[in-house]
User: What shape does this take?
Amino acid sequence: MFHVIDRNRTATAARVATLDLTPSAVFAQSGPSADTTPPGDPAARGREIALEADRRDTGFSDQTASLLMTLRNAHGEESVRELRNKTLEVENDGDKTLVIFDQPRDVAGTAFLNYTHRTGNDDQWLYLPALRRVKRISSSNKSGPFMGSEFAYEDISSQEVEKYTYTFLEETTFDGQPAFLVERVPVDEKSGYTRQLVWYDQAEYRVLKVDFYDRKNELLKTLTYHGYQQYVDQFWRADRMEMVNHQTGKSTTLTWADYAFGTGLSDRDFDQSSLQRAR
Assistant: This one.
């Protein structure tokens, strides 16, 4: 039996104001605290915080959701797209994700398939209905914009712990709540980022904010997560994600709704032929 959640009726209110086009916020409520490493070892402590966040991000099996993608240019002009998202949790590897564009008409039927891997390059494909063909996304293009948004292709992948090295920087506050600040550096030399600064809330290890630094080590983008709510008494999800590009003045908002968990999705729903079957 799968669970469909009316977030206005059954979700637990968030305590605070979460690339992958899966909202990185699936959190269990038990297990060891990440704050057990001696403070003199910032690399180990940073990795342990990331591991604890990942541990709490495990066990949802599969998930579906609908979302609105709002693209905003430097002049404040907006365009809105309607999407659907399906995610399958994969044992001992990264998640599989299928994103389907429904509106507007010029992008309807476009579908994106992503296989995240803990190590090595992710596998990504894009189906373009106008061309009636599937295009494989090269790993060298992972820093390119996803469908004209401020999210890069590498942002769409699930953020596996093994993809970064970590350094704990400090205990701080964000939006009035206690937080851990951790620097993570991509292992992949083809990443569009030199480093990222990540704020985790200390209570639930949810990601609150990420600063992305470009290959020149200059601040490129900031991603913030808003309106966290808890579903099925276990899984935390953000209602809204805001990605702001500081260098261009553009931004993209993702607004999530209609979450459902344990719907019975399987690998067949995420093979390459699923791109052209997507409706």
